[in-house]
Specification:
Elements: H1 3-17, H2 22-43, H3 48-74, H4 80-99, H5 108-129, H6 134-157, H7 162-183, H8 192-218, H9 225-246, H10 249-259, H11 262-275, H12 277-296, H13 304-329, H14 335-350, H15 355-376, H16 378-387, H17 393-399
Helix pairs in contact: 2-3, 2-4, 2-8, 2-12, 3-5, 3-7, 4-5, 5-6, 6-7, 8-9, 8-10, 8-12, 9-12, 9-15, 10-11, 12-13, 13-14, 14-15
Amino acid sequence: MTDAEHAQTGESEADAEHRVTHLELFFDLVFVFAITQVTAFIADDLTWAGLVRGLFVLAALWWTWAAYAWLTNTLDPEEGAVRLAMFASMGAMLIVALATPRAFGADGLVFGITYFVVRALHLVLYAIAGRDDPDLERAVLRILPSALLGASLLVVAAFLDGPVQGAVWAVALAIDYLWLLVVGMQGWRIFADHFVERHGLIMIVALGESIVAIGIGAAGLPLEAGLIAAALLGITVACALWWSYFDWAIYYSQARLADATGVAQAVLARDLYSYLHLPMVAGIVLFSLGVKTTLAHVGDPLDLISAVGLCGGLALYFAGHVAHRLRASRTWGHGRPIATVVLLALIPVATVVPALVALAIVAAVCAALIAYEAVRYSYARAWIRSRRGSFTMEEARRVAPRPGRNPDQADPE
């Protein structure tokens, strides 16, 4: 075995040992609560302005969670003083979540200050991680201006209102999300298996919000046939969303990320996960809003905002998958782009038919997509699942296609 092969084997073994810790899962519980708060935030203000503000809050929360996902991919969060700092971050994040419903109003200052604390603690922990790693230390210094400036602007926004307040929020988020495109990803390194697992778990957390929304939406209502049918249709959609992510896509993404090295791997991780998982999570949150409204009014048409949540949220979720595939393999696919367009077209339909019918239609679209992929790409799907991400992209191109088919069609869509 060559030195390069030895090095690659050593990296693979280290990657396999770097699993998600119990403290990371514990930390994510606060994010569960924060997502629930965002859904309630939008539900309490069913206007376009309320929808935009809710998505702004979600984007801020997601960027914070993503920052900690990169952090705990680098250092062990359960060791020594790091554990205490993680607990402090959880406490600050809990206050952020509590302030979320009135983040643009009476609790804006509390939200801004505690959000700043969460971001500052993240930088402190990264300083600890980079003590013996000059490349990582320089990478952390490059993000220091954006982290502090973005969080500071949210404090400033607390003293404003109306369109000006919204504009400051937009600038703060733009600084956070665009800064890495400017300064690059030199110095950042990841453990691919851990990184993929951590994001898979947060997707389960987000999907759990849709189930919580079913429970909240049904609370206090008579358990009649319409409500039962809506609840079952809601869980059907949730199962389809889980299937679309975890059946094979997660393994393909894991192999694609593990195949990359150096700066290219860090850039790919940033794009596929820190950026392109946000529309998936936002789509689930919007769907949760729509299904919550549906349960309360199964026989009535949805208002436009709720229809956007129910149908547009699912469209946004699958659009995230399409963008994810485009970035990973430079192909669009067919099933998920078509499902995205169909779901968008159903928004006006949901405003004129009973909400239960609208939910049944979107559930049918999701189920049809899953069935199509399972049948149309049965060989490639089975090949990917049998290896659980333990394959190279060269193997996928060479082996995965059904005999006689174009190797470029190795991955399902």
